[in-house]
Amino acid sequence: xxxxxxxxxxxxxxxxxxxxxxxxxxxxxxxxxxxxxxxxxxxxxxxxxxxxxxxxxxxxxxxxxxxxx
Length: 69
Prior knowledge:
Elements: H1 2-7, H2 12-22, H3 27-40, H4 42-52, H5 54-61
Helix pairs in contact: 2-3, 4-5
């Protein structure tokens, strides 16, 4: 389901909210999976974040972005 969020160029926070609302998935689950994917696919996410938002790239790639959920 995270892959679908990526196709729609959603941020981590947008993905967390969408999956909680539409798939009834706890935010902590989505955040944990997202962060593991980030660790395992650094090059992909580096390009993904740069393409979607240069500001978002700098915070999420460095692990400084936090969800309010």
